[in-house]
Design a protein that fits this description.
It comes from Oleispira antarctica. This is Type IV pilus modification protein PilV. Keywords: Membrane, Transmembrane, Transmembrane helix. Pfam families: N_methyl (PF07963), Tt1218-like (PF22150). Helix content is 35%, strand content 16%. The chain is an alpha+beta fold. The longest helix is centred in the first third of the chain and has 51 residues. The chain has one domain. The chain is elongated and about 105 Å long. Strand 6 and strand 7 form a beta hairpin. The chain has two helices and seven strands; from the N terminus they run αβββαββββ. Helix 1 runs antiparallel to helix 2.
């Protein structure tokens, strides 16, 4: 008497199909995690940009008597402007005391400090703009024909985004280069 026993295990094909389906699911989760990380970094960059706008706007309002001195177009980080208009530490125990500055000198210092950072310890980021990739900051008069102290100024901040979508929040974007540009108007 021959008794035929039936196998109740899994076949190799069933195991392979399960592995393929599981792999596809894990790749989808990995892609979702990467997109979430990019979106988180972009949200952090937007928070930094708001901080920069508020910082520069407040500096312009405080120096209202020389507000037109802020309208220099783009800010270039080269040499530290002279005189240095704020106290800072040199990385040791030494405090460098600021010079006495005029309104236009303070405007030049404010732009440098916001865009480039104050003199600081090597390797330490001294300003939020250093956290934004590919940052460009510019300040211009809203009406270039009548640009005097107390007139409205337009601050434009641009940086590279991590994610690329056609619409981020209605802000102006350059096609294909992931550049986000935000503009705010300041009334000193």
């Amino acid at each position: 008497m021959n008794i035929i026993k039936r196998s109740s295990g899994l076949t190799l094909i069933e195991v392979l199909v399960t592995v393929v389906i599981t792999s596809i699911g894990l790749m989808g989760l990995l892609s979702l995690q990467m997109q979430a990380m990019k979106a988180t970094q972009d949200a952090g960059n937007r928070s930094q940009s708001i901080w920069i706008f508020n910082d520069l706007s407040n500096r312009i309002r405080v120096n209202e008597a020389s507000s037109s001195s802020y309208a220099v177009g783009g800010v270039v980080c080269g040499a530290i402007p002279a005189p240095v208009c704020s106290n800072y530490f040199d990385g040791g125990a030494n405090r460098i005391v600021s010079d006495i500055c005029t309104g236009p000198q303070l405007a030049a210092w404010d732009l440098f400090e916001v865009a480039c950072g104050a003199p600081r310890i090597a390797g330490v980021r001294g300003n939020p703009i250093s956290n934004l990739p590919g940052t460009q900051l510019s300040v211009a008069c809203v009406d270039p024909a009548a640009c005097g102290d107390g007139d409205p100024l337009q601050i434009t901040l641009s940086w590279r985004a991590r994610i690329d979508t056609t619409e981020i929040d209605g802000r102006i974007r350059q096609a294909g280069d992931n550049l986000i540009s935000q503009t705010r108007t300041v009334n000193p």
